[in-house]
Amino acid sequence: MSILIDKKTRFLIQGITGKQGTRACHEMQEFGGKVVAGVTPGKGGEQVEGVPVYNTVKEALQHHHVDASVLYIPPKFAKEAIIEAIEGGISLLNVVTENIPIHDMAYCLALVKQKGARIVGACSAGIYSVGKAKSGSIAGGKSRLAFTPGTIGVMSRSGGMSCETSLVLTQAGLGQSTVVSMGSDVLMGSTFLDFLPDFEKDSETEGLVIFGEIGGTAEEELAAYLIQRRQSGNSYLKPIVAFISGKFAEAINVQNVSLGHAGAIIEGNKGTRKHKVKVLKEAGVIIAEVHHDLGRLMKQTLNGISER
Predict the structure, then answer these.
(1) What are phi and psi of 212, to 5 degrees?
(2) CATH second-level architecture of 10-306?
(3) What's the predicted TM-score (pTM) here?
(4) Average pLDDT, stretch 268-290?
(5) Which residue is catalytic, options 261, 275, 291, 292?
(6) For residue range 210-267, what is the model confidence (pLDDT) as tens digits?
(7) Backbone phi, then psi, for 208, in 5-degree steps?
(8) Active-site annotation holds for 261
(9) Average pLDDT, the chain
């Protein structure tokens, strides 16, 4: 079992004929994924890596059953592409595109909620159910060596750090079940909170590791949820270890400036690392002060549970 995607997932790639879309198609197939169709307006009738290309999502869906779409679309065209996929009834959209205009993304998030679909992204590196299938660019090239099949779920606000975090776990002898690059734009389709129930139900996941960062409220919302669960006598079933980046940004007191990612912005006391760490600790999350301690702390936690 895994969350979001597996060997049976049938993928559509929107923007498949572009350089990144073509590379993703090759890698997704190489990892065992079923890429059944691609869409690029004006390129219908072509093939990419043996995958038929259509002019529209509607046309592709007339010929193929699709479970998930991966989007490699320029920001100014992303809204139209996302709407096309949602209106077509595709239930999972992995949006790799970054810097989508905020009003466009807000419209798409309202629509996806109305239709009961799910967006992972924007600015997501992808999803990797390790040893089964992947969507997007995650684990591409030599970075695939960082991942090993196992029982630790990973959620990361940074695409690159989803790989580094998996490497730290691998080096500690802990493999990964599913690794989710949530995305790092100002508006995201899914946050830590949205994936918690999936990982809790997943019989192959024993614990969760989170890579968070300054800006936004995703970590605070996670903490509030965990506290609410605990107070209701229904505590979250699996241990969580987290690292929150941003010590340097706070040390130099940078305000109202995006630091690397569009959503990594400190505004006054909002979105600070200090506050995120505080509330997560209160919620029972184990905090790694340095990133390379994530593996050791998770291993220590799991060993402690097994010895009870």
Answers:
(1) -110, 175
(2) 3-Layer(aba) Sandwich (3.40)
(3) 0.94
(4) 92
(5) 261
(6) 999 998 899 999 999 999 999 999 999 999 999 999 886 676 666 655 555 455 555 5
(7) -125, 140
(8) yes
(9) 94
* Calpha distance 188→67 (Å, rounded): 20
Joined tokens for residue 253: 């007191």
**pLDDT class of 144 with cuts at 50, 70, 90:** very high
List the chain domain ranges.
10-306
